[in-house]
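Our collaborator T.R. sent over the components below with a one-line note: 'Predict the complex.' Nothing else. No constraints on interfaces, no templates requested, no preferences about which chain binds where. So this is a plain run: every listed entity goes in together, and whatever single assembly comes back becomes the starting point for the next discussion.
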Amino acid sequence: MSLLKEPDFGTPARPGEATVELTIDGVNLRVPPGTSVMRAAKQAGVDVPKLCATDNLEAFGSCRLCVVEIDGVKGTPASCTTPVRDGMNVRTQNERLGKLRRGVMELYISDHPLDCLTCSANGDCELQDMAGVTGLREVRYGSGVEAGANHMDLKTDTSNPYFDFEASKCIACSRCVRACDEVQGTLALTIEGRGFDSKVAAGAGVPFFDSDCVSCGACVQACPTATLQEKSVVELGMPTRTVLTTCAYCGVGCSFKAELRGDELVRMVPYKNGGANEGHSCVKGRFAFGYASHPDRVMEPMVRDTIADEWRTVSWEEAITFTARRLREIQAEHGQGSIGAITSSRTTNEEVYAVQKMVRAVFGNNNVDTCARVCHSPTGYGLKQTFGESAGTQDFRSVDESDVILVIGSNPTDAHPVFGSRMKQRIRQGAKLIVIDPRRIDLVRSPHVQAAHHLELRPGTNVAIINALAHVIVTEGLVDRDFVTSRCEDFETWEAFIAQPEHSPEAVAEICGVPAEEIRAAARLYATGGNAAIYYGLGVTEHSQGSTMVMGMANLAMATGNIGRAGVGVNPMRGQNNVQGSCDMGSFPHELPGYRHVSDDDVRSIYEHLWGTPILNEPGLRIPNMFDAAIDGSFKALFVQGEDIAQSDPNTQHVFAALGALDLLVVQDLFVNETAKFAHVLLPGTSFLEKDGTFTNAERRINRVRPIMAPRTGKQEWEIICEIAQAMGYPMHYDSAAQIMDEIALTTPTFMGVSFAKLDELGSIQWPCNVEHPDGTPIMHSDEFTRGKGRFMETMYVPTSERSTRKFPLILTTGRILSQYNVGAQTRRTANVAWHAEDVLEIHPHDAEVRGVTDGDLVALSSRVGRTELRAKISDRMPVGVCYTTFHHPVSGANVVTTDNSDWATNCPEYKVTAVQVDLIPASAAADAVREPVVAGGNR
Amino acid sequence: MSGGVPPYVRLANEIAAQFAHRSPEDAATVIANHVKATWDPRMKQALITYAESGATDLSPAAVLAAHRLQAAR
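Returned assembly:
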């Protein structure tokens, strides 16, 4: 399509029925109460001139361009700040108004460079547009120096890697400041000075890069001139066409307008009609797309006989023939179950579906698993057991109606920033916040946001504390008896279990390290504060009792009736963009698409009939089982789709041993990643800019991923899978990704109504999409649970076996930060490294002091399985005894020290609890050190 | 292996620990159902064989569950 410019109504929409009737320029219309005259005018087809107004920000009324005349009202009020009233008669255009507007424009232009022809915003400048709209023909005061004092010589701030701040072009409309406040919620920008000296400043007048700015780009998007401009636009020029697509980073799944000039991507602009993000974005999605054209991209297939050999670049045909032949040879020698595959949450639903089909129909086993194994597999298990569906219950919009927000083991402002901003907005409106996290995450206290309760628990004690919350609710008479009676089962058994004294706050306070009264207060607030919603992340799932904790949260929601309507629910914050989708598509070794067990004869027969081949009725190997089986010699070949298991999976020593034991490792990826170092075949993958398909985000929203260019490697990834299947003797063929989705819809009840055509029509669809819900289901379990009755589950707290000891006295917990993503394969190949060039170890001042560690020192981080080195960052965000790092950089290799402990139900690794020791590396040794992680028993 | 214990033994013991508050009969039923629903056949067989060998490092509930799995075949 040509360049898509969404209409701007000037001020935000107001909810409610259109009951206010008014006339604007002779046009009668009805709008909801509270609507501005400006917005009503736009709805009537009348564009009122404006500069300081835009419809994702509340009206400000500073530019005075939008003045109108209203019968019975003195003067010329600003239409943006004037709400409609019944019977109002408004005029937006006449000679008087035109003269006023030209007067305003003269003042603006008298202090603005007249370099329109060479300006980076030429053609996309609202000041330029308004000069035309108002009929400006002269500036009586002159321009620049001749007009007197001016701001023309203000310096341009180029400190941000992605955008410039050209202060000389600023018209002080405050749109950027308000966007930072109202949209992003960081409050990094301000208007400094008064009167003529007013100017936009980042923080206390420091460069943008050094300020609190999180580089979300909301200010750039809000700026009506070239003042805040993407460097890519400055360099390449204005884009000329738009492709609507979906971000390839976190589980929020933001919709973007990819804006191109010819075939070159100039910028990514968040799409206002995007259901997940509604026009907002973060530093990764908006700016960090350069990896797609990074010179490290592998563009041609490569093979080698052994991992000691050099790679040989080969044709697609040779790579596919080699792969297929070796897979069949290995099966012939070691058995049908000796090969398998891992799917990726960074690939599309269609690509994942193709891989699991290849495993089941061509490999003839169920040895398929997905990277969700190491993040949200406990979500799948826990929510399926209790609610009957392996998915979150709400849409993101739901949080706007929450009165109490309970955030557990999740750091939304870093890991899911666009939703984090939305959550902050709701908290600023008055919703109460409870945070359960060992770390003092930003949400606990940031500008105009403060948690009512921060339960700073010891890592590994989640279940103890969720049980204590439930104990208070049960024993203090806070249960929603009507909801429980009509909607749930097994309540009485659970009630008797949870009411036992061992679950009381007083009994668990010592275990959790949280005062009993604080636990009681939080429980009372959750149960009685109105609509209460739970949002959780990997701080819940990546524990030895991850699945138990998910069930514990579901118990809490059911006991208080906080399920089945807007503002409530249990909501997993998915780490990667297509975690939900990759799970939906049958990536788990015990489940076919739609979370239906492989032992179900009826379900299997659907696929057996369609695929023309029998499907095994017993589960296959999970990822950790694959590693174990590789080491014991019964698993010999692995196909890895778009994952870097050598960096992301725990206990690197164990992973290296497993990968090294394989006879064949096939890696499909953009780059020669850490896993590829053990591979025999490297099949180049496609970036999200080349993919054609769908992603499903954390709110079950299926979004289209549209290619802006043909695959740079020559093939879509699902085509490669089909060709391997064919080379192995199975006729697998699709004409398009849309055809794969048609097969998914044909065979999967929750996707029954989904098609590319319908997605194009509706924009996005939240599954289930079926006969009962043809346009999808934003909120689940409204009238009844998917499984019928919601099931209460007993959740006994069992301490992890990973304990701090004299040798390893600290507990390490790992996570991610705003500017980097997962193993960093993408973001490390962008300018985002400016914010996070290496992983650091955050350590409490007390723990640092007793070890003689100061900020920036190189330290050794050791656990019972490995040792690595990182720079220390002194921080009191953690309690004493707990330290924290990220896993974005292979050089530090955080997973060298994490263990193979895992969730009892799903084998999701216990990344969040590792007993470690931290030792200062003396400066003399640090200077000579080669930074390389070391695993017990040697390195690689 | 971790600490000399085969992975399936460690995993079975971890599952059993979650149901230690239940009666051995109940716990064995839950463990057996879980293993049946989520474990690869070679792991199930290894667990059954290990339980039948009389090894002492498998929890009693897991042993009972392994016997149930064998009996259900």
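Summary for T.R.: The helical segments of chain B are 7-18, 24-38, 41-52, 60-71.
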